[in-house]
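step=encode ok
step=design start
structure_in=
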């Protein structure tokens, strides 16, 4: 089959006004970015707040191979399939980061015949949202360093500045840097570093804010440093909040595009799922819920990361309740989790499927502990063995869970109609959605409940630094916030090499960091890099522009 980019470029898109009109939006409620992209105006968002909301379907996954298992592809295909069977649906996705686009994993616009378009725009600069977030973040950093240079009236301790710069690019050489060199005219020398933009707290705030007034409140309370006395210094304290809001004003409005089959797609915001909470913006999700009977959304990586954070953080803060969950699995991921080397996952191996299913089983049990109905979507690849697909269905049936092979990558919406029917059935069942911890629980209790119930850990161990951080959180009075676990996506544990369903392990928490603006506490389990590096052969090597101006080599 043709590469994703070629499929997208050969497709005729509908004018964005036509996509908007299919959900009752007028031209006056759009701010156009060319013929095929638009943002919803503030007045449009205001008018949607009182509308009845549709059903929310969360797409998550088992622990993936390094290439990912097609969660975005299934999300897009399921949205299309729901419309094929006559159920009005829209989708809500994260915006891709240029880090994985130029690196290894690729973009986040789906694939094959289950894509959102215009694919090149979405995977690259899109409507400039990530650039706005980058600039707003770095404006706060510049104002902070200028405050030090101009006399430091707040008494900020340069050794306790927690606000790095950000860049939407994988660049390991920027993880640790020294700034302010060159003499008194060039600032105060100190150690600094860069995170990737999607790890910025501004991104998390952007995605969790319910409206612009909420965004303003959250931006003000972001902690950027501490004084010599150990008191927190916020964005508001250094006077950066107003400028940041100016830079974020236009970006904050949700983006509207379309799938290859004309399903409305709200793509807005994109925090990483192992570093941050991994969900698209509350604004986009609520817009979709108000405009369609069904909204299909995703949360990054496996259910141990994306789904857990979606349910504990996004749903908690935005007062959302999912009607059903779709768990994406693939034969290759099952065999990988079952101990087969990545180079051999295409070879038939029923025993490895059975061993790897322990990973799927744990995720399904976790969804059941949340009181949610789950449907397994087997994202089918060319070359998958029929007896392996049958074995997955049998294993799921033993758990009273429906498992449906889907071919949306190859066939678009029509390849997901059986999945769509099962999802509708799951949505019609009454669920008993409940969270695994209460906000009033202390920090360690909340971490333990996630570690033991979601990951299967036996114990949790705090490093000496994490214990000091815990005392600081108590002094700040923010113990009531939910937990955002920063953990490897490759394993249920904090050891990326512990595949399948590890048991009896200890989850090691090395650091606790308050993200007061976002409204959560980040717990770092293991060595999680907030600025990734490029692989030996990055995807950027294969990209170019043809003589007629067309982008080439983008997946």
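sequence_out=
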């Amino acid at each position: 089959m043709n590469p994703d980019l070629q499929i997208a470029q050969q497709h005729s898109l509908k004018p964005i006004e036509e996509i908007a009109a299919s959900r009752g939006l007028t031209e006056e409620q759009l701010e156009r970015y060319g013929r095929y992209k638009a943002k919803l105006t503030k007045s449009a968002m205001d008018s949607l707040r009182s509308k009845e909301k549709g059903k929310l379907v969360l797409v998550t996954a088992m622990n993936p191979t390094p290439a990912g298992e097609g969660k975005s592809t299934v999300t897009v295909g399921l949205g299309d399939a729901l419309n094929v069977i006559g159920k009005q649906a829209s989708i809500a996705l994260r915006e891709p980061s240029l880090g994985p686009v130029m690196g290894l994993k690729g973009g986040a616009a789906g694939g094959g015949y289950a894509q959102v378009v215009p694919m090149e725009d979405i995977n690259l600069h899109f409507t400039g949202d990530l650039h706005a977030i980058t600039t707003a973040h770095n404006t706060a950093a510049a104002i902070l360093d200028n405050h030090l240079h101009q006399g430091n009236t707040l008494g900020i301790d340069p050794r306790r500045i927690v606000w790095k710069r950000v860049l939407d690019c994988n660049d390991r050489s920027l993880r640790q840097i020294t700034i302010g060199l060159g003499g008194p005219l060039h600032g105060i020398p100190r150690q600094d570093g860069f995170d990737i933009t999607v790890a910025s707290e501004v991104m998390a705030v952007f995605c969790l804010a319910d409206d612009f007034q909420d965004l303003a409140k959250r931006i003000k309370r972001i902690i950027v440093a501490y004084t010599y006395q150990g008191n927190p210094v916020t964005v508001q304290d250094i006077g950066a909040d107003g400028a940041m809001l100016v830079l974020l004003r236009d970006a904050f409005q949700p983006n509207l595009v379309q799938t290859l089959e004309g399903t409305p797609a709200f793509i807005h915001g994109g925090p990483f799922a192992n570093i941050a909470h991994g969900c698209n913006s509350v604004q986009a999700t609520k817009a979709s819920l108000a405009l369609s009977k069904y909204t299909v959304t995703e949360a990054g990586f496996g259910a141990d990361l994306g789904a857990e954070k979606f349910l504990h953080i996004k749903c908690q803060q935005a007062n959302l309740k999912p009607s059903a969950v779709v768990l994406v699995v693939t034969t290759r991921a099952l065999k990988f989790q079952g101990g087969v080397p990545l180079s051999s996952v295409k070879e038939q191996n029923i025993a490895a499927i059975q061993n790897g299913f322990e990973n799927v089983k744990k995720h399904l049990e976790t969804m059941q502990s949340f009181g949610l109905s789950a449907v397994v979507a087997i994202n089918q690849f060319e070359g998958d063995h029929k007896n392996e697909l049958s074995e997955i269905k049998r294993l799921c049936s033993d758990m009273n869970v429906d498992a449906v092979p889907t071919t949306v990558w190859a066939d678009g919406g029509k390849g997901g109609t059986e999945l769509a029917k099962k999802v509708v059935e799951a949505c019609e069942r009454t669920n008993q959605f409940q969270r695994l911890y209460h906000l009033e629980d202390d920090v360690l209790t909340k971490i333990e409940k996630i570690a033991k119930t979601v990951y299967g850990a036996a114990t949790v161990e705090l490093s000496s630094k994490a214990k000091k951080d815990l005392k600081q959180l108590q002094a700040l009075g923010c113990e009531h916030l939910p937990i955002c676990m920063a953990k490897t996506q490759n394993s249920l544990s904090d050891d990326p090499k512990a595949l399948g369903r590890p048991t009896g392990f200890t989850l090691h928490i090395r650091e606790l960091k308050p993200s007061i603006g976002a409204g959560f506490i980040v717990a770092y389990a293991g060595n999680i890099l907030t600025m990734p590096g490029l692989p030996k052969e990055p995807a950027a090597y294969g990209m170019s522009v043809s003589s007629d101006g067309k982008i080439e080599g983008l997946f």
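step=design ok
step=annotate ok -> The domain at 129-248 is CATH 3.30.1510.10 (Domain 2, N(10)-formyltetrahydrofolate synthetase).
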